[in-house]
Amino acid sequence: MEIKYLTLFVIFYLIGSIPFAFILTKLCGLGDIRNVGSGNVGSTNVLRTGNKTLALLVLILDICKGLIPLIVMKNYYDIYNANLILIIIGGMTILGHIFPIWLRFKGGKGVATYIGFLLALDYILGLFFIFIWIILALLKRYSSFSSIISLMIIPLTSFIILEEINISYFLIGISFLIIFMHKSNIMRLFNKTESKIKF
Q1: What sections of the chain are H helices per DSSP?
Q2: What is the DSSP letter of 34?
Q3: How many Å apart are CA 4 and CA 51, to the nearest integer?
Q4: In degrees, to the nearest 5, what angle opens at C-alpha 169 toward C-alphas 42 and 163?
Q5: Reported confidence tier of residue 157, pLDDT bands at 50, 70, 90
Q6: Angle formed by the axes of helices 111-121 and 165-181, to 10°?
Q7: What is the DSSP letter of 53?
Q8: Burial class of 108 by CB neighbour count within 10 A (0 to 12, 13 to 18, 19+)
Q9: Which of 4, 40, 55, 137 has the smallest number of CB atoms closer than 10 Å to its CB?
Q10: Which residues contact 134 (CB under 8 A, 6 or more apart)?
């Protein structure tokens, strides 16, 4: 693999590793987000601090981690000559969010960054994920349930929308990883002890 691709792998991983939930809750005097609720470094857990504005800001920033780097790269590289490899590099922001080097590789679950990645990959996929998530969240009021079902549907939808089938297989892999990161939520859903979203 060319050195420029290896460099991009590292850069995208480090961008994804920026723990906005951890940084902003600290700056706002809310303590260590890892000691709040589920301990997850993500916007849903920030919401449990009671600061909805901060949770929304974290959500937007985490989405931007997956969105902006891939858009920039698609504009500066010939995406058609190295389609799959560039998309995989873009996916490193998701891995960075889940396994941030700054927090000893214990980060968030990657959903928001995945949404940003999808929007940059194909905005229809991204918007469809958001649509499914909102509908399920309104019906069931479980963030984790909404995310898991959406993660199962999107890769299958990508086989219809995307021209490159290997990217769809990559989405299956990423989706499976994020669903696996929800294993504790899945157990709580089965046990009916999962916390509901408070709108």
Answers
A1: 3-16, 20-27, 43-47, 52-76, 83-90, 92-98, 111-121, 123-140, 143-161, 165-181, 183-191
A2: G
A3: 41
A4: 110
A5: very high
A6: 170
A7: H
A8: buried
A9: 4
A10: 146
**Residue ranges of domains in the chain:** 3-191
Q: Which residue has the tokens 């389609």?
A: 83
Digit-coded pLDDT (tens) for 90-117: 999 999 999 999 999 999 999 999 999 9
158 CB-contact burial (10 Å; exposed 0-12 / middle 13-18 / buried 19+) = buried
pLDDT tens per residue across span 4-41: 788 889 999 999 999 999 999 999 988 888 888 777 88
- Give me the amino acid identity at 88: I
How far apart CA 156 and CA 80 sit, in angstroms, is 22
Token pair in block for residue 117: 């990645």
Question: Between 105 and 74, whose confidence is greater?
Answer: 105
Retrieve residue 167's tokens.
């990217």
AA identity, residue 179: I
Tokens of 88: 């995989």
Would you mind telling me the total number of residues written for the chain in this entry?
A: 199
pLDDT value for 3:
74
Q: How far apart are CA 138 and CA 22, in angstroms?
A: 27
Q: Hunting for tokens 């990959």 — which residue is that?
A: 121
The one-letter amino acid code at 186 reads I
pTM (predicted TM-score): 0.92
Whole-angstrom distance between the N-terminal and C-terminal Cα of the chain? 47
